Each structure stands twice: as structure tokens, then as C-alpha cells.
């Protein structure tokens, strides 16, 4: 009896075919912790990884989350048990391996995807393409089957190609809603805010730098002419900041010297963006973030710019606003590279 009660309490921590359930005869639907608190259901795919773990930790303390599903192909029982001990409101459930993908996704409002391999020194984001493209395709096929109305936050690189891949998968399945698919470029904004604040001698929390285009190298286009609070920069500062923002990822990859790419700042950025999506879903007004989305802002089918987040996802995609000459030149460079990366993603699914 006592054992049964303990098993019952902890049943929600384990994948549905775990030993706890087998021994006790308990089923997930019988456990007491059902996530009854009001809030959203969020799944993280790739939850045991370098980004996934701190992301899971931060989502567990997000008061807008009532149920948190952690899915990966390795190690989710451990991560789930660990995160599940935190005395915050969200109920945490773990799912391990492809056979449990459907259960992980059923009923989710928001799905965050940091699954894949990270960049190693000497690797470009495009080197990751073949591995991550296949992973993203499989996971998006699962989303199309199990939670086609969920908002999707795609982190897996190269974002410039994985977002078009996801769109093609959803189109094939007949579930594509461009408002609900968002490539996460928040880390570029977070870095831009930090580096610009450093140069201006301000608190980064007071600084807001729009970053548009895409999410790799020259496609990352910080609009320093539109920084808030309004600020002016010397040409030397503009060049230093643009270069540092565009290569912030490489700065971390090199400093980690073989141990992966940005994970902690990325988890922070992912939660900042996911929280904005959840506030939008809740109906808050004026939630605006930069993201890589289906877009008519340029002639390219996808582009990162400021978007208004609402009950249906990216409800409005904003124009770029006035650019100076330096930014116009940067935009042309960005578009050239972006066009090729987008096409690469589309061809991967259509081939
Ligand atoms: N958007 C951004 O700004 C940004 C920033 C940093 C990293 N990234 C990208 O995020 C991804 C993850 O990086 P990381 O450092 O956490 O890598 P990681 O290797 O530490 O973790 C990736 C996790 O994904 C899991 N995984 C692999 N295949 C899977 C599948 N089919 N289904 C579910 N999970 C699967 C792995 O088991 C692992 O736990 C990489 O593609 C990286 O390039 C994006």
C-alpha cells in the first residue's frame, strides 16, 4: 500500500513503460499530479542536451507552464527525475526514444526543439546540416501527427535551413500554419543587447537592438541605427559591434575548445522567447520579439524581423524600418546567403 502510494506520486516522472509503472500497475492517467494548475503544456525535444537541460530547468520555474514534457533519445529519465524534484508548479514528465514521441507531443501548446548536434571548432553551421536536417524532419513529422496546432520554437541549427525544412514537412502533412513556426534568433538579440550595452556603458536590460535577417554569420544583421534608447555610434564601433554580434557563436565555440557551442546563454534566450510566445498565447498585448519566420518583408520566403506574438503565434511580421547605408549593404549580403540556405532546406524535403 505504502509502496503503491510512493509509486503513484512519482509515476509522472517516468516514461510510460518505466519499471515503476510496470511494478505498481499504475498508469500515468491515475497519478495524482496531472498538471491541474492553470497554464500551458510545453514539450522540449532534445531535453537531455547541453541546451535542453538548462532550458528544462528554466521552463520548470516559469509560472506560465503547467505541464513540461522532456523528450530525448537518451538520458531523459535522469533529467526528468532531477528537474521533477524542483518545488515549482509545472508537472514534469519524461519520454525516451522515438516510440514515445507521440505521447510526448500529444496536447502540447508549445514545442521547443533544441535537438541535434552542436557546432565544433572548424565546423560551420552548414556542416551540421545533414545530421540536424534529418532530426528536425522526424520531429516535425511527429508534431504534424500529434499536435498540429502547437506553436513551434525551432533552435536546431542551421536555423536558416531547419525552419524551411519544418515548413515543408508541415505543408506535406497539410498542417502548415506560418504563424506557428518560429525560428529562434533571440540569442543574437541577447548578445547584441549585451555588447551594445558594454560599448555605451549601459545596463543591458535597458538596451534593445533589433537583429534581422537570419541566424548565421553575415545573415545576422543588427540594426544599430534603431537601437533603443536612441544612440549614435562611431563607424569603428559599428564595425566592431556588427562583427562581434555576427560571430558571437564562434566566440563561444572557440572558448569551449571542442566541448560544444553556446548552451547556457542559448537556454536563457530560448526561455526569453518561449515566455514571450506563452504571454502571446495568453492574450497579452504588445509582445514583440525578433524571430525567423515565413515573411513578405523581403523577396525571400523566410526572414527574421520583429514579430508581434499573440494567441495564434506570429500574428504580425513587422517591416524593417529605415536602414542606413551600412545596413543596406549588409542586407544585400545577408539576402544572398540566406536565399541559398533556405533553398537547401526546401530541397532537402522535396528531393
Ligand atoms: N538557435 C540558436 O541560437 C542556437 C544556439 C546554440 C546552439 N544551437 C543548436 O542547438 C542544437 C543543440 O545544441 P546542444 O549544444 O544542446 O547539443 P547537444 O549535443 O548537447 O544536445 C542535443 C541533444 O539532442 C538530442 N537528440 C539527438 N537526436 C535527437 C532526436 N532524433 N530526437 C530528440 N533528441 C535528439 C541528443 O541526444 C542531445 O541530448 C544544435 O543544433 C546547435 O547548433 C542553436
From TrEMBL:
One of its GO terms (cellular component) is peroxisome. Residues 185-348 form the Lactate/malate dehydrogenase C-terminal domain. The active site is at 215 (proton acceptor). NCBIfam families: MDH_euk_gproteo. Residues 41-183 form the Lactate/malate dehydrogenase N-terminal domain. Its EC number is 1.1.1.37. One of its GO terms (molecular function) is L-malate dehydrogenase (NAD+) activity. NAD(+) binds at residues 46-52, 72, 132, 155-157, 266. It catalyses: (S)-malate + NAD(+) = oxaloacetate + NADH + H(+). It is found in: Peroxisome. Its main location: other. Belongs to the LDH/MDH superfamily. MDH type 1 family. CDD domains: MDH_glyoxysomal_mitochondrial. InterPro entries: L-lactate/malate_DH (IPR001557), Lactate/malate_DH_C (IPR022383), Lactate/malate_DH_N (IPR001236), Lactate_DH/Glyco_Ohase_4_C (IPR015955), Malate_DH_AS (IPR001252), Malate_DH_type1 (IPR010097), NAD(P)-bd_dom_sf (IPR036291). Keywords: Glyoxylate bypass, NAD, Oxidoreductase, Peroxisome, Transit peptide, Tricarboxylic acid cycle. Substrate binds at residues 119, 125, 157, 191. GO terms for biological process: glyoxylate cycle; malate metabolic process; tricarboxylic acid cycle. The keyword Ion transport does not apply. Coiled coil: none annotated. This is Malate dehydrogenase. Homodimer.
